[in-house]
Every structure is written in structure tokens, then in C-alpha cells.
Write a structure and sequence with these properties.
By secondary structure, the protein is mostly beta strands. The chain contains four helices and 31 strands. 50% of the residues are buried. The protein binds CU-O-CU linkage and copper (II) ion.
């Protein structure tokens, strides 16, 4: 079994300990992101290029990022359910790019996977995306070319599809949460794809931002009900959010409505790429403040932000009694009796028997991870053989067995699946998603109906795991 080198460990711990301390003395409220009104159709121009943004606050230089339209995160795209969306993406970077519309059920040619579904957009070129999102919910968009670096440098944004009849709330907030490893002068640290980290948790940063800034407080009013859209847009960091003194109710995961329920042990678990829509009744005391804590990693708990109550009296004497359940989306329900079953073994990583950089079973290169013994590395390429084929309209079950010692948020493109069971125990609350967080050694089964024809990527959303071989393709014929 490979040993963790003390110097690597020391460095990681140092960086992680730097979280909050390094850039802690701030007083920025959570910034509301630009809000373009939802319309009966949305046509946008998105430019991918370099930009400088103020991320960590007074006293620090601005940070150079790669951004959409100069904004970090990119502009919030809002469209009404069932209305057409069009984007012309221009590439102002010095390398090729694509945009993937994460979680949206769309035609394969619009999925944004380089070589597999489209030619990459070369520097100076444009590409037009057009689709009509069938489902309401919290989705997002990000680069899918050189994605560890391009996402790691900031090419990501939220994509909101509004319900025809949104639930009654006092207000809505979107938290696009990103994780950065910054140097002392607030620049993105080089050294992506460090081999040691790539075979472990991935690149965990030292600075966590909400809507592009290290936040201090969210100002709230007692008695109000907030619909909070949480998006974990980090390249690796998994989050477990606790709302001190509050009882958040999860009403949707990855954009798909579920039975409203409180999270297990009060922690909202979000792997990289995952979203949760949460209803938050502000039942705290006027004038007080409460912490939102992320304590996913042992010994690395930190305060993400504080909920700061205005002194004003509650807006209503009792919590809002409005129903919490979101209207359902037109996602087809899989037929478990006729579904084909496909075993998916997640393999490799540190302590996984593959070694690092050795490749496994003749899969050369720098693969540290594999699915069923095969390592597809990178971001997408032409002619990748599918793991299996399935006819459109047929149901299938992915029977995932995590043989590794690490967590994996596993993402399927172009579909939403139902999460059936974990280690043989049925999952309650009718949970659907496009990304499911699989614990070390856990077995998780999900099911879906094969939708649009094409080659759909299935991969871990910890970017080093994806580019290091934890990726495959499912072909819908
Ligand atoms: Cu959000 Cu293939 O990715
Ligand atoms: Cu992974």
C-alpha cells in the first residue's frame, strides 16, 4: 500500500489550515448575483476570457480568473421552463473550450463535450447552443474542455429554470459556492493535477466564495421564508452545510423536486457539481447572528457565512404555512421490472491497488482511476467506446460499487436518474439527480429511462478523478 509522503501531507494540511485565517478579516455581505429576468425565451452571448475580480476583499489585489462575460461566477442565466434558450459562446481564451449545460436534459449535440458531441471552440471562434429545458430547477454551466484547469480558474455559472408557478416565498437567494487555492497575493495557485492529490480527495483549496466573494454575512429578517438555491461549483471540495439554529428543508436536489425533508443530522451534503433547493424559515431572534458551517472534512470545519438578523420584528408571527413541495418535472419514471442492470465498479486511487501513474491492466498514461478496469482520461475524445448501449425509451439501472477508499460524486450527462438504494437500503423521499455522491466502499443503485440518442458521458465530478480515468460513456441508440 503506498504511503502518504509526510511532505505532501504537511503541505495539504498547511493549505487547508489557511482556510478562513488567510482571508478571514472581511465584512462583505453575500452579493446578489445579477439577475436577468426570466423570459419566454432567452438569447445570450457568452464570452469566455480572462478577467480580474475582487474575490477576497479590501487589502488584497484582484484575482486573475478565467470567466464568462468578465463575471465570476458567470452571469446567472434564467429561463422559464419550456421556453427556448440560445447562447452564442465566443472563445477569447488562448486555448479551446466548450460549454456543458450540467443537468439539463437536452439533445446530445448541445451537451458540450469536446470531440464527442461537438468540435471544440477554438480561440477566436464561436459556437451556438440552442435547446429548450424541459425541467424547472437549479442547474449550471461550465467548461468541459481542459476542465480541471478551466473550471479551476473559474469558468462556471448558474443556470436557473423557473417553474411556471414558483412556490410562495418571501425571497430567493442563489449561492454559487466555489473553492479556490489562492497564494498570499490572492492569485490562483499553480500546480493543478498534483499526482498525490489527484489520487486522493482532489485539489481542495484554502478559500471558499459565495457568488464570487469570500462572504461575511447574509442579512435576513425574522419570520421570512427564503428559497435558497445551493450550487457546489467547486472542482473537488465536498460540502456538508449545517445551519446553526435553523431547520432547512430540502425540496429539490440537482434541480429535481423531492419530498420535502430535513437533511440527515441537519447536514446538507453536496458533492462537487451537486445542487440543493432549500426552504429556510428564518426562525432566529432579531438582532442575533447564526453560523452556516461546513464540516465535511475531518478537522477542517469552517464557517462559510453568518446569517445576520436585522433588529426588526418578525415579518409574520408564525412560520409561513405555504406548501413546500415543488411542482413535479416531466422526467420519465424508470420501469424497474424491465430495466437492464449494469454493474459499474469504481476503482483506483490511493490505497486502491492501482498505484499512482502506473496505469492498471495495461491502461497506460497517468491514469489513477478506472471504471470496470478501463481508464478514459481527459475531457472527452472522439471514438471512445461506450461501456454499454441502450435503446431510447428503455429503462436501466446503474449498479455502482465503489471499490475505492474515496468519495465520488458520479454524474450522468443529459439525464436525471432516480436514486434507488444505498448498500441495499431503499433511499426515502423520492430522490432524483444527475449527480450522486457515493461513499467509500458504498454500493449505490440509480435508475433512469434512456432519453435522447447519443453518447452520454458518465464520470466523477472531482475533476482530477475525471481526467484521471473515472469516466465512461453510455450510448443511447
Ligand atoms: Cu458537470 Cu461532464 O460535467
Ligand atoms: Cu471521484
Amino acid at each position: 500500500m503506498p504511503l502518504i509522503s509526510p511532505s505532501a501531507l504537511g503541505r495539504r494540511q498547511f493549505l487547508q489550515a489557511g482556510l478562513v485565517c488567510a482571508f478571514g478579516a472581511l465584512s462583505w455581505p453575500v452579493r446578489a448575483q445579477d439577475r436577468s429576468p426570466a423570459s419566454d425565451g432567452l438569447t445570450v452571448t457568452v464570452r469566455a476570457g480572462k478577467a480580474r475580480v475582487h474575490m477576497v476583499g479590501e487589502g488584497y489585489p484582484s484575482t486573475e480568473v478565467w470567466a464568462y462575460n468578465g463575471l465570476e461566477p458567470g452571469p446567472v442565466l434564467r429561463v422559464r421552463q419550456g421556453a427556448p434558450f440560445r447562447a452564442t459562446v465566443g472563445n477569447e481564451l488562448t486555448e479551446a473550450t466548450t460549454v456543458h449545460w450540467h443537468g439539463i436534459r437536452l439533445p446530445n449535440a448541445m451537451d458540450g463535450v469536446p470531440y464527442l458531441t461537438q468540435k471544440p471552440i477554438m480561440p477566436g471562434e464561436r459556437f451556438k447552443y440552442a435547446f429548450t429545458p424541459p425541467d424547472a430547477g437549479t442547474f449550471w454551466y461550465h467548461s468541459h474542455e481542459d476542465s480541471l484547469i478551466q473550471m479551476g480558474r473559474g469558468l462556471a455559472g448558474a443556470f436557473i429554470v423557473e417553474e411556471a408557478e414558483p412556490p410562495a416565498v418571501d425571497r430567493e437567494q442563489l449561492w454559487t459556492i466555489q473553492d479556490w487555492r489562492l497564494t498570499d497575493d490572492a492569485q490562483i495557485a499553480p500546480g493543478f493535477n498534483n499526482r498525490m492529490e489527484a489520487a486522493m480527495d482532489g485539489r481542495i483549496g484554502n478559500t471558499v466564495t459565495i457568488n464570487g466573494r469570500v462572504p461575511d454575512a447574509v442579512r435576513v429578517r425574522a419570520g421570512e421564508r427564503i428559497r435558497l438555491r445551493l450550487l457546489n461549483a467547486a472542482i473537488a471540495r465536498i460540502m456538508a452545510l449545517r445551519f446553526e439554529g435553523h431547520q432547512p428543508v430540502i425540496v429539490a436536489l440537482d434541480g429535481q423536486p423531492c419530498e420535502p425533508h430535513q437533511p440527515t443530522e441537519g447536514r446538507i451534503l453536496l458533492g462537487a457539481a451537486m445542487r440543493a433547493d432549500v426552504m429556510l424559515d428564518m426562525q432566529g431572534e432579531p438582532g442575533r447572528s447564526y453560523q452556516v458551517i461546513d464540516d465535511f472534512y475531518d478537522r477542517l470545519a469552517y464557517t462559510l457565512v453568518r446569517l445576520e438578523y436585522k433588529k426588526a420584528a418578525p415579518v409574520r408571527p408564525h412560520p409561513s404555512g405555504a406548501p413546500l413541495r415543488l411542482p413535479s418535472n416531466p422526467v420519465p419514471r424508470p420501469d424497474l421490472k424491465t430495466a437492464s442492470v449494469h454493474v459499474i465498479q469504481l476503482q483506483g486511487g490511493m490505497m486502491g491497488g492501482m498505484g499512482i501513474g502506473g496505469g492498471m491492466m495495461g491502461m497506460g498514461g497517468s491514469a489513477a482511476w478506472a471504471i470496470n478496469g478501463q481508464s478514459m482520461t481527459g475531457d472527452g475524445s472522439a471514438g471512445m467506446p461506450p461501456l454499454f448501449e441502450i435503446a431510447r425509451g428503455r429503462s436501466c439501472i446503474l449498479d455502482m460499487r465503489n471499490e475505492t477508499a474515496w468519495w465520488h460524486p458520479m454524474h450522468l450527462h443529459g439525464h436525471s436518474f432516480q436514486v434507488l438504494d444505498r448498500d441495499g437500503k431503499a433511499v426515502p423521499h423520492d430522490i432524483w439527480g444527475d449527480t450522486v455522491l457515493v461513499r467509500p466502499r458504498e454500493r449505490v443503485r440509480v435508475a433512469f429511462v434512456a432519453d435522447n440518442p447519443g453518447d452520454w458521458m458518465f464520470h466523477c465530478h472531482i475533476m482530477e478523478h475525471q481526467v484521471g480515468g473515472l469516466m465512461t460513456i453510455i450510448r443511447v441508440t
